[in-house]
Amino acid sequence: MIGRSAIALVALATVLSAAVPARAADGMDLLKRQCASCHSLSGPAPQTLKALWARKGPDLFYAGDKYRKEWLVEWLQHPRRIRPAGEFYRDHIKPGPKRDVIDKSTLKPHPRLGKDEAKAVADALMSLHAHEDLIAKEKLDPTAKPGPLGEMLFDKIYGCMACHEIEPGYGGLSGPEVYTAGRRLKPEFMLSYIKNPQAWDPKIWMPNKHVPAANVQKLVNYLLELSEEDWDESE
Q1: DSSP string over the chain
Q2: DSSP, residue by residue, 35-98
Q3: CA-only gyration radius of the chain, Å
Q4: What is the mean pLDDT of each run of 10 residues along the chain (235 residues)?
Q5: pLDDT one-digit tens code per residue, 63-109
């Protein structure tokens, strides 16, 4: 005969096992109602430049292949801009005294979610996979440390800093900042995306630099090291 304590444990396990799918379902409903107007939840990625330029926010149909869940939960509660000049740079700049500057009046704040909503949405996003085949090919080599050459690889050799900030206020503005990339992105995604951005986003303007595999590993480890620093991320 099964004791009362055993029955209680079985019941608790059943409730807990049902809680995550239920929360993910609630999160998906929230995504569809509040986020689908700016983010693609079903794909595919834009197939023309016109469609790319019309994109209001990053595609999320492969969010489970891309993001770290713990970062999503925190960011959704306290969102801050990852792309200094928004999704499409041209729409959010104006002439400055010496060069183009960001026109912050054209940028809208991202909605904030409560803690439970953020967890539910993160669960839903983690269920979205479209490129597991690309992720499966990648494995981070933590021993491939870039050392003092990390910034040189990123900036001078491959020219990535023309579009990406490596610390607040230092670097390009047309792409997402990278000093937080290690916190928000899975290493496997970074490895795959650096190797071939167009495999993820066929019309994206990020160039394929044909980076050798050894240097891809060093670049990703450099980004992971950057994310460990205590940056002032206030806007």
Answers
A1: ---HHHHHHHHHHHHHHHHHHHHHHHHHHHHHHHTTTTS-SS-----SHHHHHH--S---TTHHHHB-HHHHHHHHHS---SSTT-SSGGGGEE--SSS-EE-GGGPPPPPP--HHHHHHHHHHHHT--S-HHHHHT----TT---GGGHHHIIIIIT-GGGT-EEETTEE-SSS--STTHHHHB-HHHHHHHHH-HHHH-TT-SS------HHHHHHHHHHHHHHHTS------
A2: TTTTS-SS-----SHHHHHH--S---TTHHHHB-HHHHHHHHHS---SSTT-SSGGGGEE--SS
A3: 20
A4: 49 45 76 92 94 93 97 96 90 87 90 94 96 96 91 94 92 93 97 97 94 96 92 62
A5: 999 999 999 999 999 999 999 988 888 889 898 888 888 999 999 99
Biggest CA-to-CA distance, the chain: 82
Write the single-letter amino acid at 144: A
Give the model's pLDDT for residue 202: 96
Quote the CA–CA distance of 64 and 72 in Å, as a whole number.
Answer: 11
Whole-number Å distance between alpha carbons of 125 and 111: 16
Cβ atoms 204, 139 nearer than 8 A: no
What pLDDT sits at residue 14? 46
Structure tokens at 47: 């197939």
What are the structure tokens assigned to 15, written together?
Answer: 């409730």
| 128: its two tokens | 């979205």
The pLDDT score that the predictor gives to residue 148 is 85
| C-beta separation of 180 from 231 below 8 A | yes
